[in-house]
Design a protein that fits this description.
CATH architecture of the largest domain: 3-Layer(bba) Sandwich
CATH superfamily of the largest domain: FAD/NAD(P)-binding domain
Number of helices: 20
Helix content: 25-40%
CATH class of the largest domain: Alpha Beta
Length: about 600
């Protein structure tokens, strides 16, 4: 008997047909311009990046002082670094943030419906230290930003913080063995050690749609939501849209959250889709105070580890988080696929169940079919929402599926797609952030290390680091919160938890109380690069590996489908997040910080 025929009856689908469908849908979306299809928010588009949350610019004289540790970025990366260093006794800490307050992602992203999609008990950092109980399983953005402020207040991080300042250059002074940090406010600050906590989603981007600059109506990016125009708040109630025709471009994780609120308030809403997302049940609920009071010390790290193991296919005795992430297909692997890899069969089953959910929820069969995702789970970030699909049952909501081609052009009065013109009063760009672009593009500044060599020059043939954090030729400097050379994880905060402990350990202990300069050796850097290359070819069904991403629909995970354009050494740690965390812990526990050279600083 044919093995595939057997699997057809067992599973209700034909694996060969699904592979063919996935490949065909991917082919529709592959573009010659790859990530160049997007526009930077600069020049004539600079207004899209302006800060809508600051009424006035803080007037001050430029700073020319010195601190022991300067942290670039006031999101969770920077806050957790500052908190760990405070816990270790470091007093001279400055966080430089281009926004008007702490929060990072949760400072900028205040669109209606904005909330975390990871369980709050493992996503909100340092809950045991702060002592607060989250309101619910998936709290809204205002609660997450306030949590960021609480970390800053508890660890006195407002003391020397600098807001509304963007770093423009960072230069190593070989005489003083200090970093000089320049900003757009005329500052030239000096620091012994620098931690760059810029985050993977720091720079919003716009689509390179012809005519985008000609639109005469209202237009804004979701990360700079204009409540003056829409009315309402992060909780919705966008009353000023009741007589407006609104178009939203993009149907990724952000649109999944804000579209239901637009649907409730707009006179007409048009959702322009190139690639649908997978939408699973969210199941939000309030946190039980009695359960919260029963938690024992160390509970948060234990829950983080349990969650990360389950999401990455390592069975656990108990599912502590118990949500859509941990109940995913990896817990249901079997060998009923004949000659199809069991992991792939489980992946097929998961996606089939999500496509069936769309058929069950969306009333119009044509709309339901267009909303179905045809790719492997984890090719795009999975989404969880109980209102997005339902919004398409409203008579004022219209899905404009572009069959993978995207919007054709924009003119003064609206959007063209599929040869049809849609007159609009407002366009919302839910088009995400720069991911996979070069460091210079994402950060907005280059770093000049020893002998005048810049980071971009050092990385001209691909990223080179140890643990994704330390770089040869760039002493006393860390990069945290990025995606290169690290174990990618659904719960980004778990990675930050491990990385910030690592940073504090090195700064305090490798430098003998902040008195030494440290530098990564060329040999240690090369050994880690070799490991990244080796691991990239392992476990082809692992989402962090190139072979898996090569078959995925284009997106920011796989450089818009152009993995050939990415040096093989530029990528995540292919062993997965728990193995990556093990690397960090083993390195710290080995004694002597292998691969670091230190000497007494001037």
């Amino acid at each position: 008997m044919d093995s595939n025929a057997s699997s057809d009856r067992q599973s209700g689908f034909d694996p060969a047909a699904l592979r063919e469908k996935y490949a065909a849908e991917r082919a529709k979306r592959v573009r010659a311009d790859g990530k160049a299809q997007y526009r930077k928010i600069a020049a004539e588009f600079s207004d899209f990046a302006s800060d809508p949350h600051v009424e006035t610019i803080i007037e001050r004289a430029p700073l020319h002082d010195e601190v022991d540790v300067l942290v670039i970025g006031g999101g969770f990366s920077g806050l957790m670094t500052g908190a760990r260093l405070r816990q270790a006794g470091v007093q001279s800490i400055r966080i430089v943030e281009r926004g008007g307050d702490f929060g990072g992602t949760w400072y900028w992203n205040r669109y209606p419906g904005a909330a975390c999609d990871i369980d709050s008990t493992i996503y909100m950092p340092m809950l045991e230290d702060i002592g607060d109980m989250p309101s619910r399983k998936y709290p809204p953005a205002p609660e997450l930003q306030e949590h960021a402020r609480k970390i800053a207040r508890k660890y006195d991080l407002y003391r020397d913080a600098v807001f509304q300042a963007a770093v423009t250059a960072m230069v190593w002074d070989e005489v003083s063995e200090r970093w000089k940090i320049h900003t757009n406010r005329g500052d030239v600050m000096t620091a012994r050690y620098v931690v760059m906590g810029l985050g993977p989603l720091a720079q919003p981007k716009l689509p390179g749609i012809p005519g985008i600059e000609t639109f005469k109506g209202k237009a804004f990016h979701t990360s700079r939501w204009d409540y003056g125009y829409t009315g309402g708040s992060a909780y919705g109630d966008l009353t000023k849209l009741s007589d407006k025709r609104v178009g939203i471009i993009g149907t990724g994780a952000t649109a999944i959250q804000c579209l239901p609120h637009l649907a409730q308030s707009a006179q007409e809403l048009f959702a322009f889709q190139r690639t649908p997302s997978s939408i699973d049940v969210r199941g939000d609920k309030l946190i039980d105070p009695e359960w919260w009071a029963s938690l024992k010390p160390g509970w948060q790290r234990a829950r983080m580890v349990n969650f990360t193991n389950l999401v990455n296919g390592t069975p656990q005795d108990v599912d502590l988080v118990n949500d859509g992430w941990t109940a995913n297909f990896l817990d249901a692997r079997d060998d009923q696929g004949g000659d199809v890899d069991p992991s792939q069969m489980a992946n097929f089953r998961k996606m089939e169940s999500l496509r069936q959910r769309i058929s069950d929820v969306v009333e119009d069969p044509k709309t339901a079919e267009a909303l179905k995702p045809w790719y492997n789970y984890f090719c795009k970030r999975p989404c969880f929402n109980d209102y997005y699909l339902q919004a398409f049952n409203r008579p004022n909501v219209h899905l404009v599926d572009t069959n993978g081609q995207g919007v054709e052009r924009i003119d003064e009065t609206g959007i063209w797609a599929n040869g049809v013109h849609y007159p609009l009063d407002c366009i919302v760009f839910s088009t995400g952030f720069e991911v996979g672009t070069g460091f210079l593009s994402r950060s907005g500044f280059d770093v000049t290390g020893k002998h005048g060599v810049t980071l971009m020059e050092h990385w001209k043939e691909g990223v080179r680091t140890l643990h994704g954090m330390l770089v040869n030729g760039f002493p006393n400097c860390f990069m945290i919160g990025g995606i290169d050379h690290v174990g990618l994880n659904a719960n980004h905060v778990h990675m930050l938890d491990e990385q910030t402990e690592y940073v504090a350990d090195v700064i305090v202990n490798a430098t003998d109380g902040l008195t030494k300069t440290f530098e990564l050796t060329r040999e240690a850097e090369q050994a880690y690069v070799d490991k990244i290359i080796y691991l990239s070819a392992r476990n082809p069904m692992a989402p962090q590996n190139a072979s898996f991403q090569q078959e995925c629909t284009p997106g920011y995970y796989n450089n818009e489908g152009d993995l050939a354009g990415v040096p093989v050494q530029t990528g995540p740690y292919g062993g997965g997040p728990m193995a990556y965390f093990g690397e960090l812990q083993s390195w710290r526990q080995a004694g002597g910080f292998p691969g670091l050279q230190t000497h007494k600083a001037p």
